[in-house]
Design goal:
The complex is a heterodimer. By secondary structure, chain A is mainly alpha-helical. Helices cover about 75% and strands about 5% of the residues of chain A. Chain A has one domain: ABC transporter involved in vitamin B12 uptake, BtuC. By secondary structure, chain B is an alpha/beta fold. The chains are: A mainly alpha, B alpha/beta. At the A-B interface, helix 1, helix 9 and helix 10 of A face helix 11 and helix 12 of B.
């Protein structure tokens, strides 16, 4: 009896996930079409990629609110750069700048001991503002010789979108790092008891710094995926995206106080959140109502997990 | 008064309580004595309604009772005082005492409330301004409020879980006076404590709890300390400490010289330590004992000192470097600084050693980790279900062994141990003493800080006593005497000299 209950707790994100699939399939005939599933994967990829970085941040007991702003500003940044330099260089430079923004958060949080919420809140505003400044507030089309990039965002191989493949590759990398690598072990340990980790001779600041660099880099990658889908770098996108990302990690059962969370459940959380949006689109529910329903479902998922304990 | 028969409780496959029978009379203070893991806290949680029993009966005044919540237990007349208080700091004494009733009211008559609160406090023999917010009270006064709160219901049975743990000697006297008053009013008190002295001073009878079963019940009058320990452990007290009377340290043992360690910006202290030696450090709380260990280990930045091992100068400027030089520190506060409670036992043991079990890309060799961890678990006889269970699943003694294992894992040469047996029950204590003794025999140099004089004298080869950041005396084992040590700890040696 107890063991069944324990299994239930262990796999509750999976249970919600399967429940969502069944519900989605019942609600809409077009859910289980190859076209729609491929679309779903493409849609969730940016949030998903950032969620993996957010999981690391949350495991250390931190938070990063700047990711949506980075997505917008780096989309604009890439579009502008694409006129100036050969596009693979623009691509790389965008990633480097994103990692640089992450370094700034990491430096403020790990070495200047500023609370993660405050430091990244400030950066969220600053980076968003820079996006508007550089784009003069209007969307920027990418340069025509970067058109090859459009294939990355919109294209697929055997029906699996490139964006989805990138999502899964990063998932696999993170999975391995968290399960088998010292880095993952220490990130988890820091969230559990930072002082004990420090007294065990581990340079805690270094690890905290790097998780923010990673999430910055992944936000830049997400920006590139989004630009490459639409061909436009818009300073208005990604508003509230940090909340979707955090929601996905939390639906995946991670604790915001750190030390507890899993990458598999985070991926499930991303897909659950994605399916909610997807199926409501299929059902032609207005986006205003969608927001309300989404919020309620997030709440239900977390309450359900709490209830299990 | 309260009669417990055949109570049992299992968590999954673990039988926390097998068969407990207890009879507690009105107007007696009844102690429950047992090692950690014997089932005391499970039994208390069942009595107070925080847990449901699987089996057995509980009668109060001859009437069978069933309740499933603490509220239910309270209605049947059972009150519980936990180790950690459940008071709201910002509210006044009066508000805290009647917190349970307040929520049922829409308007509060503060005058009435304060009068009622003052009466309860007065009845148990104290004087407190009931309009004061709780955060302004001393710990002892807070405990009075906690007891008063329990008494707002018609309490027939009051359970106290290690109430003296947070109190100073003078405050304990007050607490005992309160408890005796309650006893004289006909309340049945169940008192849990690790301190045998207290039981002799306060209690009327004591029941031993062992492996989830209730054992013998003794009348305190006419029972000796040794009898109780023997009943609890199946062995006697003087076997607690390994024999260190005939230890000699070879002339050529590596000598560690610690110099110019300045604590609280006072005159620096100097001392030495030999490999294979156990150096005890005594002193009152706040005398600089913990700071001394942290300074040596480099736990806080900008700490000045000079450490010389043999002829080699060591710069222990942060924990990372200290660990590379073979120093390990077991901190005073296990939960805050020592253990990662939510992580597995395995992860805790390998935490300081990760780079030795990983390749240059940081990938951990799981097989190697497992074998290293298992070896340490066997060597220290850590009692556990699986090394993958969280550290929090272990008793205090076994948690402490895990922390020790972490340092053995890096092959430490010098171990700094702050309060080796805090929150560790008597049985596991003896095991930890044995481990420390064996480590010293293997050539480790050990500095051990403790508040327990008996422990210091039982295990150390030398004792330094500290007071206000200074070392007041350095005593060899043959001169150990509790009275001398205490005199140097409180500064009484100066007035006499």
């Amino acid at each position: 009896m107890t063991t069944i209950k324990q299994k239930f707790i262990e796999y509750n994100t999976l249970i919600i996930f399967i429940g969502m699939i069944i519900l989605s399939a019942c609600l809409s005939n077009s859910f289980f079409t190859a076209n729609n599933l491929s679309n779903l994967l493409r849609q969730v990829a940016p949030v998903g990629i950032i969620s993996f970085g957010m999981l690391l941040v949350i495991l250390t007991g931190g938070i990063d609110l700047s990711v949506g702003s980075i997505v917008a500003a780096m989309g604009v940044g890439f579009a502008l750069l694409s006129y100036e330099i050969y596009f693979p260089w623009a691509f790389l430079l965008t990633l480097v700048i994103s990692a640089g923004i992450g370094m700034l958060s990491g430096y403020l949080i790990a070495y200047q001991k500023i609370a993660p919420f405050i430091a990244t809140l400030a950066l969220m505003t600053i980076v968003r503002g820079l996006g508007y400044l550089f784009s003069k507030g209007a969307p920027v089309n990418i340069g025509h010789h970067s058109a090859a990039l459009l294939n990355l965002g919109a294209g697929d191989i055997f029906g699996i979108p490139y964006a989805g493949i990138i999502l899964l590759v990063i998932f696999a990398l993170m999975f391995v790092v968290l399960k088998y690598n010292v880095f993952g072990r220490i990130v988890m340990a820091i969230g559990s008891n930072e002082e004990a980790v420090r007294l065990s001779g581990i340079n805690v600041s270094k690890y905290k710094f790097f998780v923010y660099v990673i999430i910055g880099l992944l936000s830049g990658l997400a920006a590139l995926l989004m630009v490459s889908r639409t061909g436009v770098g818009s300073p208005n996108i990604g508003i509230g995206m940090e909340l979707d990302v955090i929601a996905a990690v939390v639906i995946g059962g991670a604790s915001l106080s750190g030390g507890k969370g899993s990458i598999v459940n985070t991926l499930l959380g991303v897909l659950i959140l994605g399916m909610i949006g997807n199926v409501m689109n299929l059902l032609d529910i207005t986006s205003y109502l969608q927001q309300v329903i989404k919020g309620v479902i997030i709440l239900l998922a977390v309450v359900f997990q709490r209830y299990q304990k | 008064m309260i009669e417990i028969n055949g109570v049992a409780k299992a968590f999954g496959g673990v039988k926390a309580l097998r068969n407990v029978n207890l009879q507690i009379k009105a107007g007696e203070i009844h102690a429950l004595l047992g090692e950690n893991g014997a089932g005391k806290s499970t039994l208390m949680k069942i009595l107070s309604g925080a847990l449901e029993r699987d089996n057995g009966t509980i009668h109060i005044d001859g009437e069978p009772v069933h309740y499933k919540t603490t509220q239910g237990a309270r209605e049947k007349g059972i009150g519980m005082i936990y180790q950690e208080f459940s008071l709201v700091p910002a509210l006044t004494v009066a508000e805290n005492i009647f917190l349970h009733q307040l929520k049922k009211k829409t308007l509060i008559n503060y005058k009435q409330l304060q009068q009622d609160a003052a009466k309860i406090i007065h009845d148990i023999g104290f004087n407190l301004d009931v309009r004061k917010p709780v955060y302004q009270l001393s710990v002892a006064q807070q405990q009075v409020v906690e007891i008063a709160k329990a008494l707002t219901a018609d309490v027939k049975v009051l359970i106290l879980d290690e109430p003296s743990a947070v109190l100073g000697p003078a405050e304990i006297v007050h607490l005992f006076a309160t408890l005796r008053k309650l006893r004289d009013r006909g309340v049945a008190l169940i008192y849990i404590s690790h301190h045998l002295e207290e039981l002799f001073e306060l209690c009327d009878r004591v029941t031993i709890l062992k492996d989830g079963r209730s054992g013998e019940t003794f009348n305190i009058a006419g029972t000796s300390r040794d009898q109780l320990v023997a009943a609890m452990l199946g062995r006697s007290l003087n076997t607690m400490f390994p024999d260190r009377n005939h230890i000699t340290h070879p002339e050529n043992a590596l000598n560690y010289q610690f110099d110019n360690i300045s604590l609280f910006q006072k005159t620096p202290v100097n001392f030495n330590l030999k490999a294979g030696e156990i150096l005890g450090i005594g002193g009152l709380v706040g005398s600089g004992r913990t700071e001394l260990l942290r300074t040596i280990f480099g736990a806080d930045s900008q700490s000045k000192k000079s450490v010389i091992a043999g002829s080699e100068k060591l710069t222990l400027k942060n924990p990372k470097i200290s660990i590379l030089e073979g120093f390990g520190m077991v901190p005073e506060d296990r939960k805050k600084h020592g253990g990662l409670l939510s992580l597995s036992i395995r992860e805790n043991i390998s935490l300081a050693n990760l780079h030795q079990i990983a390749n240059k890309f940081g990938f951990i060799d799981a097989g190697r980790e497992r074998s290293v961890v298992n070896e340490l678990v066997n060597r220290l006889q850590i009692k556990l279900g699986s090394v993958n269970d969280p550290l929090s699943s272990l008793s205090g003694g076994n948690q402490q062994k895990v922390i020790l294992a972490k340092w053995l894992n890096i092959n430490a040469n010098v171990l700094l141990i702050d309060e080796p047996t805090r929150g560790v029950d008597v049985g596991a204590r003896a095991e930890i003493y044995q481990i420390i003794h064996e480590l010293a025999s293997e050539g480790l140099a050990i500095i051990m800080v403790s508040s327990d004089w008996e422990e210091l004298m039982g295990l150390s080869d030398r004792i330094l006593v500290m007071r206000e950041g200074q070392i007041t005396i350095d005593l060899p084992r043959k001169d150990f005497e509790e009275e001398t040590l205490i005199r140097y700890a409180i500064g009484a040696h100066q007035t006499n000299a």
